[in-house]
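Practice problem: Phosphoribosyl-ATP pyrophosphatase
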Amino acid sequence: MTDSAILDRVTETIEVRRSADPSTSYVSKLLHDGQDKILKKVAEESAEVLLASKDGDKTHIVREMADLWFHCLVLLAHHNLGPNDVLDELRRREGMSGLDEKAARKTG
Ligand SMILES: N=c1c2ncn([C@@H]3O[C@H](COP(=O)(O)OP(=O)(O)OP(=O)(O)O)[C@@H](O)[C@H]3O)c2ncn1[C@@H]1O[C@H](COP(=O)(O)O)[C@@H](O)[C@H]1O
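Answer key — structure tokens:
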């Protein structure tokens, strides 16, 4: 069953972890370490997705993509943003041609 509410639930947990002891929580440590550490994890997990895709194993791809999405949620939280901000942007683009979106980016 599709359950996009999981994005909200993980985000709520990330928010709770903001004030937790970094020695007891991976998320708390990541947020405490700051943006560069989060960006490093996003880059590492992106590379893992690339390797999994080349490997072609679907289970591996899903696991690595979950790691990437999770770290992207932490990065969004670092900026006081959440998954709904990205979903709103995808909704805005819905029905728009990809070429129109590209042209809109060029014109600003
Ligand atoms: N979804 C996740 C999740 N996905 C991946 N990870 C962690 O992300 C890390 C992935 O990094 P790597 O694969 O490079 O593994 P690693 O070598 O252990 O990582 P590093 O220690 O080098 O950073 C692992 O430590 C995973 O445990 C996650 N950690 C937490 N969550 C969610 O966040 C919640 C809160 O977690 P805590 O803050 O740990 O309580 C959990 O209940 C989950 O819902």
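Discussion: The mean pLDDT is 93. Students who identified this feature from the tokens alone can consider the problem solved.
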